[in-house]
């Protein structure tokens, strides 16, 4: 389901929109002149039932803030919905996405930008600017990072299935391109795993960030085919690589990491296998694929993120391997204490992928 753009908006981000309010505002086109999102509420451990909202009321079906990579049994990892149907897809707390945004920005692979810029500069008929589709945009972190690093007018089409996050993404969209050119935005609500080449018609670039690992192989094949069909490059960033390095080390690190990785692979999701699968899928479509590491480097200055990440990481591992619970509880207590004392460093490995498909109707 897509929502063509119709509404002009501008101004500061409103107080926390509930899902209903967000749904009403899901059709949005705007020039980017808004402030960054400041979701109300506190970040708390996954599973905490406490919600602190900027507005008066807790919206129906609100996302519980605090979203390390954990989930309820049978759900996909990362976020929980209060009173949600267990078959509903997970919702991502804007607080979690906000917390990780600076670490994501610091991690992103700059080396992939030059080949991307060259491809965009050589696109035929781009005098009016480029159209960039950001898949699984969340609150729009990718656009806020990339738009100011590319020259020329840009129109961003922000895709997500969550209208609540789309609302934040639209209101806090990037302001202008690297050379001061105009950046405009529209939102489309829908399932990005079912994109067709038609949905990407006219696209100059597809982006995604922290998305691939929550897709299946079939969904990644569909995405690669859609990009190849539209002849547009894809910059798919910050997919988990399944490797974590904690300093100082602990005897339980490896077992927790393995259990977490298995948790990520539940229900056919690719988890740490996503980048390899995506590289294969795009290569099979004739694209040239480049990979680059993009690790989170977490130290004392990222303690709040590290804390939430640790809670989610260990929580998912225990959910996958309940026999770990007692040892994992002690492990988490110890790790959180080290984190609070500024004595813990964590390297969470990710990979960025740039796929240069053959331009539609032309040679590569
Ligand atoms: C981990 S968050 C990343 C958000 C954002 N890209 C960022 O880097 O902050 C994953 C996002 O993908 C969205 N998402 C996951 N699967 C999706 C699907 N099949 N269709 C549409 N959106 C999806 C979620 O709603 C969420 O906003």
TrEMBL record:
Keyword set includes Transferase: yes
Molecular function terms, GO-annotated: methyltransferase activity
Annotated spans, Disordered: 1-47, 61-93
GO biological process assignments: methylation
InterPro entries: Methyltransf_25 (IPR041698), SAM-dependent_MTases_sf (IPR029063)
Keyword Magnesium: no
Organism of this sequence: Streptomyces purpurascens
The protein's name: Class I SAM-dependent methyltransferase
Ranges of biased composition (kind: Basic and acidic residues): 80-90
Polar residues bias spans: 1-13
Stored SUPFAM superfamilies: S-adenosyl-L-methionine-dependent methyltransferases (SSF53335)
Superkingdom of this protein's organism: Bacteria
Keyword terms: Methyltransferase, Transferase
Record domain Methyltransferase: where: 133-228
